[in-house]
Amino acid sequence: MAKIIISQLGGPDGELSASLRYLNQRYAMPYGEVKGLLTDIGTEELAHFEMISAILYQLTKNLSVEEIKKSGFDTYFVDHTTGIYPVAASGTPFTAAYFQSKGDIITDLSEDMAAEQKARTTYDNILRLADDPDVRDPIRFLREREIVHYQRFGEASSTI
């Protein structure tokens, strides 16, 4: 599970991308209320990054060498042992190219809404593969927050 959940840490639609996107977009936002929304959601996404990191640590902390090899986690293990490092499930390391900040209100909020939907889809895909309730429950919570963020960005779009 760690091998796929890690995408929400450092993948293109993960929590690190979201937090940096929103916290950077707020500087060019001319509306105080929307700037506050970007700050609030960007900060919440950092908390989600922490939750994903904790899940990854719990899933990998006691892996045996045999389990690491059998699960395909060996390529990650070679570079990072079981340390938390932001990569996509494909193995691609996090890059700033994953998040957008144009400085245009409509463009940025449209990007934010799309980003929340892409993250929700990734969580849906994780839930299709996960059967452990200790993994499913926090992933389900994070998925629900993506929906709330999408709605909040939609409300902000309609007010400007």
Give keywords.
160 residues, mainly alpha
In summary, what is this structure?
This protein is mainly alpha-helical and 160 residues long. The protein is 71% helix and 0% strand.
Molecular structure report:
The protein is mostly helical. The chain is built from eight helices and no strands. Helix 3 (15-25) runs antiparallel to helix 4 (32-60), helix 3 (15-25) runs antiparallel to helix 7 (105-129) and helix 4 (32-60) runs antiparallel to helix 8. The longest helix has 29 residues, at 32-60. The protein is elongated, with a radius of gyration of 16 Å. The model has no long low-confidence stretch (mean pLDDT 95).
- Can you give the mean pLDDT? 95
Order of helices and strands: HHHHHHHH
The N- and C-terminal alpha carbons lie at a distance of 41 Å
Strand content: under 5%
Number of strands: 0
- What does the main sheet amount to? none
Number of helices, counting only DSSP H or I runs of 4 residues or more: 8
The helical percent reads over 70%
Summing up helix and strand content along with how strands pair, one would put the structural category as mainly alpha
C-alpha Rg (nearest Å): 16 Å
Sum up the overall morphology in one term.
elongated
User: Which consecutive residue ranges, at least 5 long each, have pLDDT under 50?
Assistant: none
